[in-house]
Amino acid sequence: MGNTCIVIGGGIIGLSSAYYLHKAGFQVKVIDKSAMDRGASYVNAGYLTPSHIVPLAAPGMISKGIKWMFDSSSPFYIKPRLDWDFMKWTWYFKKASTTSHVQRSLKVIKDINILSRDMYDDILASGDLDAYQYERQGLLMVFKSAKAGDEERKVASWAGDLGLEVKELNKAELSAMQPDSNIDALGAFYYLCDGHMTPGQFMARMKDYLQKSGIEIITNKEVIDFNFEHGKVKALVTNDGSLEADEFVLASGCWSENLAKKLGIYLPVQAGKGYRIDVPRPTGITLPTILMESKVAVTPMDGFTRFAGTMELSGINNIIRKERVEAIANAAHRYYPSFEVNAEEKAQAQFGFRPVSPDGLPYIGKTSKYTNLTFASGHAMMGWSLGPGTGKLVTEIITGEKTSMDLKAFGVERYM
Hints:
Helices cover 35% and strands 25% of the residues. By secondary structure, the protein is α/β, with parallel strands linked by helices. Strands 4, 6, 7, 8, 15, 16, 17, 18 and 19 form a nine-stranded mixed β-sheet that branches.
């Protein structure tokens, strides 16, 4: 094992991998096709979510997807298209949407979330990064209907069995916790184990630290191919020359599938587009909140409140669907009747692509084909929450240390 490493992808997974690899003594370069100033790592809800123990692939999701397929404003929108990779992904998603898969995944997802939350704690305690927002105030799962409350009560029971602290709140208790928000809901489940951050702020601090530590960050340069021989990747081929290293980390989010194909590896990933609206004025909302029926996440960030949500499987495109932005704004008004997102705030909406695996679990590890290539992708909606934990695991894999948790569920070759 040499001491040079290139990380492909400059999102939270890539930067976290670079951070821990640097700590382990590697000379690291990070390369990204973008300017590294937008995308899923910047527009997400900023949640650290040990409470999110149920994978996206769960019973009922296929029927919901079919029901919502013809409503482009629905929380989970699948755009029908004749694309072989998408159709295969859909088939695997259907196969994974079982009760047994959910039960197998609960502890695995909880464990990697707790690991990653602990890594966020360690980064904060290290003093490496300049000050940034990081709060552990928990998360409210708010419901307006008894049906949604019953569904979340089951999840809360599983969470409690796994040692996570959760409380059920009635309408009066919920209002007392958010007295200035005028929230209109039947009740909520309060997960005390969760935290939140302002993603763009943390990303800027992390990039600054990495560059000051001697890590080269290469932006606006696209990896288009690989040179490899005898079971090792020798170099990346970019649109502007090639780059050699001893070790490589593929953490390129939704673009991981196409890059993996160039290496002869099948890594099914679909782009799950999510949107966000930022409101830079008082809202009275002081706790992170998920509006359950609408699947909208609300986060009090540093200087603004973020409303984020929707899962749109329509391929990689730069279309901002106004009806989806309106759906988020309308949900905010339904739960907070005295609040309304204005036209200017909606006009500033942005989106990002989450890399979604068919079973809702990330890919973390090596394949049998290459000894010096480690994968870290497919984190779906949990990318922000799992960033540092994944970076730590990637570093342990490359250095040959005992990993902080069992990685069997995250096997890269599980669809090969």
